[in-house]
Amino acid sequence: MRKVLLVRFGEVYLKGLNRSSFLKILTDNVKKAVKGTGASVWLADSRIYVAEFEDMDDIVNRVKKVFGLYSVSPAYEVDKDFEEISKACLEVCKDLSGTFKVLARRSDKSFPINSMDMAVELGGRILDANSQLKVDVHKPEHKVCVEVRDHAYVYSGEIMAAGGLPMGTGGKAALLLSGGIDSPVAGYQIMRRGVRMCAIHFMSPPYTGELAREKVVTLAKMLAAYSGGMRVYMVPFTKCQLEIHEKCPEELGTLITRRFMMRIACKLAKDFGAQALVTGESLGQVASQTMEAIGCTDEISDIPVFRPLIGLDKIEIIRIAEKIGTYETSILPYEDCCTVFTPRHPMTRPKKSGMPKAEARLDIDALVDEAVAGTEKLIF
Amino acid sequence: MIAYLDNSATTRPDDRVVDKMAQCMREGYFNPSSVYLPAVNAFREVRACREELLQAVHGAGCRLIFTSGGTEANNLAILGAGGRIRGLKIAAVSAVEHPSVRACFDELARQGVEVRVIGVNGKGELDFAALEKALEDGAGLVSVMQVNNETGAINDIPRIHAMTQGRALLHVDGVQGFLRTPFSMKDAELYTLSGHKIHGPKGIGALVCRENILINPRNMGGGQENGLRSGTENTPGIAGLREAARLMKEYDMGELMQKKLHLIQAFGAQVENMRINGPDPAAAAPHIVNLGFPGVRGEVMLHALEACGVYASTGSACSSKKLKVSSVLTAMGVSPTEAEWALRFSLSPKTTFEEIDYAAEKLGACYAQLRRFQRR
Q: What is the interface pTM, i.e. ipTM, of the complex?
């Protein structure tokens, strides 16, 4: 009898002829997640198995964060021998109380006892051994599962994993990471679709300080834990902001600032090989996120811009931020570049046609090139 | 060049302090509660420090309890001694106290004590009428700071004590004042001091109290410090504090005041419309001044100066959405807009005129540049 982790995958099932390549990547990602623990990982019977490790909780925590997985179950692996299976069932049930049901399956039809008989007999033995348990075949609190495959597996309970698609199957994208609540969540949502991500952060010293930078580094490291590493571009943005402040209409200041961010992000995206930008915009949340304003920033980008939070309420975004652990860091009160020169009355219904005139006094290319040239690359 | 003008946040330990502490850790590491000779010597070192510190605050016959710093000493004074006052119904605290004092009064309030917050005027002077009223109503505990950490305003402790005497216990938070402005334990029942504001180490401070004051300990254990603060004595910290306190006596506070006035004059020459928040500098503590540079937010000026190696601090913490300005400055009647411009500069006797002149030059350059880009 040895401990193993049964790992089920999710949406990969929807794949057709390319399923095997997805599964290969997914298995490799699980191997990376348990690297250093000495555990072995293999793919068999439309499952991934992890075995030969010491600390089950540690392995569960590592594996459940791998994108593309549906759920995991800590299980016992035993020989295909009814007495062995029975022993494992009693072990699984020894601390349970309430109602239960045994679910038996045998994909190996050469196993001498059929599934129904097996369930009945094991259920009886569990009842004899644990007086805290009662049978309920309709709505049991615990399902004790027995699967007879190449070996027999016994487990109870299922822990939900991160879902999504295997990291690396979805291409690359660049996330505009401000340090607020929304952008890390947007990054997470797209990473979850198997997309490798870099982050782009705009700094405006002396208007923003070292602590604001440290906060973004902390957030990037949190996201990197999901994606297995992350590159962060730190863009010096003060000059752009000062020029915009000095030479553009005040009510369009934020919007023009965002257009500059898009221009710079597009260039850095190419450096990373990203095929899309990702932002944390949510429709109507602030003046620069109205439909008209998004239209004005969207036209800048020559690659698709993904906005996974576009239809979410703030409260829903906060809930995800709490789930992925970025909320506490996001709410630290350091000024970010977005709030430096916030106009008193930003225009909420800007027209695209008015933008070239508003930006006419700026040497756009020179400002963008200077910012890109001064960008610092960090790897986590 | 670096101009460190944030000595009220903390000071750089003097090399001689570091040496004493290293020596204490290398050679004098024995537990003062043990009974063999080297341990007894460690005990003697602790006792000597205690006596010297008591002397420094004119506290002959007083008790001195070593703590982990100012915050713990304030807690021990307000919750430990305040909590021991029988039938305490009302307690009074000034409106401009450090969070470690304010939070303790919040705790008293949760325990059912009525907390009276005594306001201050534009110079940081306590509202004596309000204090008198609180005392008349039966306030049993009063806590005020010796020197305000954001503005350098000095409280008239003898006058306050004359009012509280016989009616209430007076606790004075001396973290920013200890050894820089005169103080005597004749004028208070409880006094807090800290090591790292006087070129000593972090993690050491003390509560001085009159011998007859009853205190509920907040750290239980082996009964050190007469049972009032259990835990093995921080002997390196105590040795460092002792050395730092000794060295402070070598400095002339009049000269420190001259440096501060020079700073104000040099900064004012760079920024003509500079504001001085709080009290008249010559009447305040010799090492703290709070200045405003119109049109430039303190946080922005701080980061701009930081880039030039000039370190100061803001009284205000900004959140990305809402600007919170210093409650101390608003209590002193500074308008929210002006409070946004505020920066605190704090000196130590080790601050040089060169540092100040360097800072002034950088300030002038930063201000000229930043003033162009005010938020409209």
A: 0.72
